[in-house]
C-alpha cells in the first residue's frame, strides 16, 4: 500500500487563517464562537455559501489530474447536525463520496474536532480549551459519531478509511506549542482544567473506537489512529491479530522542526527530514503502515522571517512586508524541501498534503508572504511540487 492524497482542509471544518472573510465582523477566532457571534440567519447563510463554493465536483477532477489518488476530509463532531448551534454537513459528505467514486478517488474521513477540544488549537474547533478526554460523556459522543460514520459509509467503494480523532495533543506537544498562550481561550472559565491527553487515555480510546467502527467497516477498510505527535510511542500497541488494517498517522511540519530547534536553511531542513522523518517512519513501519496525514512546503526561510513555529498575523506576528527572495530562489527552496519530504514519506505508506486550497490573500493582506505554500494548487502551478505528469514528461 502507498497512498498519495491531499486534505480538503477548511471545507467542513473551518480555520480562520485559511478563510478570514467568513469571520468578518466578529471577534471569533474559531468555529465554536463563530455561530455565537453572528445571528443564526447570517451564520447559516455564510456556511451554506462557503460549503457549496469552496469544494465542488470540479475540484475532484483537478485533484485526480494532479496525480492524487485520495482526499482526506476533515469533518466536525457535529457532522450529523445534532449539536446546536452548528449546522451539520452530512449532505456535503454524501456528495463528496459520489464525486470521489465518479473520478476514481478514495476518501479518508478524519474526525477533526471533539467537543471541549482534544488539542486547544484553532483547528480543533475551540482555542485554548482541551478537556474532551476528561469528559466521559463527550468521549462517548465522539465514539457514537465514529460508529455512525462507519455505518453510513462502511460499504462505499469510495471509502479508504476513517481516522478516529485528529491531533490529540499529549504532554510534549502541549508544551512545544505552548497551547494556552498561542491559542488563548475566549472564555477562561471554559478553559479551566484544560491539559494534554495521556497516552493511556488515547490507547483506551483507540481500542474502543476500533471495536465500534469495525462492526460496520469491512476488514479491507482502514482504521487510522493519530500518534499524538509521539511517533515512536506506539510500538507495543494493537499488535494482536484481531486488529486488522490499522494505520498510524503522523503529522510532520517544518515549522514544528523549527520549534524543535532546526536551523532555518535548506540544508538544515534536509538533514532534519533525513534524521527524524525518514528514520522514525522507517522504524515504525515495522509495526504499522505509517502515513504522513499532514505536511506541506511551508518554512520560515522562504517566508523571509522567523515565523516562530508557524505563527501568523492572526497570532500577533508581523510577517514579512516584502519578498526576501526572488521567484527562482523560492522555487529552488520549495523543490528541495518537497523532494526531501516525499523521499521520507516513501519510507512509509503514503501522505496527504495540507491543504488543497487557501482563501487567504497573500498579496494584498500584509504579513502573509510565504503562506501560499500551504496551498497545493498554487504549489503545483508554480512548479514547486512535482506532479506525476511532469515526472513522466521528464
From TrEMBL:
It comes from Blautia caecimuris. Residues 53-300 form the Glycoside hydrolase family domain. It is found in: Cell membrane. Keywords: Cell membrane, Cell wall biogenesis/degradation, Glycoprotein, Glycosidase, Hydrolase, Membrane, Signal-anchor, Transmembrane, Transmembrane helix. Glucosidase involved in the degradation of cellulosic biomass. Active on lichenan. This is Exo-1,3-beta-glucanase D. The lineage of its organism: Bacteria, Bacillati, Bacillota, Clostridia, Lachnospirales. Pfam families: Cellulase. Belongs to the glycosyl hydrolase 5 (cellulase A) family. InterPro entries: GH (IPR017853), Glyco_hydro_5 (IPR001547), Glycosyl_hydrolase_5 (IPR050386). It comes from the Bacteria. It is a single-pass type II membrane protein.
Amino acid at each position: 500500500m502507498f497512498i498519495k492524497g491531499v486534505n480538503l482542509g477548511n471545507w467542513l471544518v473551518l480555520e480562520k487563517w485559511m478563510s478570514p472573510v467568513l469571520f468578518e465582523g466578529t471577534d471569533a477566532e474559531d468555529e465554536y464562537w463563530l455561530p455565537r457571534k453572528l445571528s443564526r440567519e447570517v451564520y447559516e447563510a455564510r456556511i451554506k455559501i462557503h460549503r457549496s463554493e469552496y469544494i465542488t465536483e470540479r475540484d475532484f477532477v483537478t485533484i485526480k489530474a494532479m496525480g492524487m489518488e485520495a482526499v482526506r476530509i476533515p469533518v466536525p463532531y457535529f457532522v450529523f447536525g445534532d449539536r446546536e448551534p452548528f449546522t451539520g454537513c452530512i449532505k456535503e459528505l454524501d456528495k463528496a463520496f459520489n464525486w470521489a467514486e465518479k473520478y476514481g478517488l478514495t476518501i479518508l474521513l478524519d474526525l477533526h474536532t471533539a467537543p471541549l477540544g482534544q488539542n486547544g488549537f484553532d483547528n480543533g474547533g475551540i482555542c485554548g480549551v482541551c478537556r474532551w478526554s476528561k469528559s466521559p460523556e463527550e468521549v462517548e459522543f465522539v465514539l457514537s459519531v465514529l460508529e455512525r460514520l462507519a455505518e453510513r459509509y462502511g460499504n462505499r467503494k469510495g471509502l479508504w478509511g476513517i481516522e478516529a480523532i485528529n491531533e490529540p495533543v499529549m504532554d510534549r506537544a502541549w508544551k512545544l506549542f505552548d497551547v494556552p498562550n498561542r491559542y488563548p481561550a475566549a472564555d477562561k472559565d471554559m478553559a479551566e482544567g484544560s491539559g494534554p491527553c495521556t497516552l493511556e487515555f488515547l490507547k483506551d480510546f483507540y481500542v474502543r473506537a476500533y471495536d465500534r467502527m469495525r462492526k460496520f467497516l469491512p476488514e479491507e477498510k482502514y482504521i487510522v489512529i493519530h500518534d499524538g505527535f509521539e511517533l515512536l510511542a506506539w510500538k507495543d500497541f494493537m499488535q494482536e491479530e484481531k486488529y486488522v488494517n490499522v494505520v498510524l498517522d503522523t503529522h510532520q511540519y517544518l515549522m514544528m522542526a523549527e520549534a524543535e530547534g532546526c536551523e532555518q536553511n535548506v540544508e538544515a531542513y534536509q538533514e532534519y527530514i533525513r534524521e527524524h522523518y525518514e528514520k522514525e517512519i522507517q522504524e515504525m513501519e515495522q509495526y504499522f503502515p505509517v502515513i504522513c496525514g499532514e505536511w506541506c512546503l511551508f518554512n520560515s526561510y522562504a517566508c523571509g522571517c522567523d515565523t516562530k513555529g508557524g505563527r501568523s498575523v492572526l497570532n500577533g506576528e508581523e510577517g514579512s512586508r516584502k519578498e526576501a527572495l526572488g521567484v527562482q530562489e523560492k522555487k529552488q527552496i520549495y523543490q528541495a524541501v518537497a523532494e526531501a519530504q516525499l523521499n521520507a514519506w516513501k519510507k512509509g505508506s503514503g501522505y496527504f498534503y495540507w491543504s488543497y486550497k487557501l482563501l487567504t490573500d497573500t498579496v494584498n493582506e500584509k504579513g502573509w508572504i510565504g503562506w501560499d505554500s500551504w496551498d497545493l494548487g498554487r504549489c503545483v502551478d508554480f512548479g514547486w511540487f512535482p506532479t506525476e505528469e511532469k515526472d513522466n514528461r521528464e
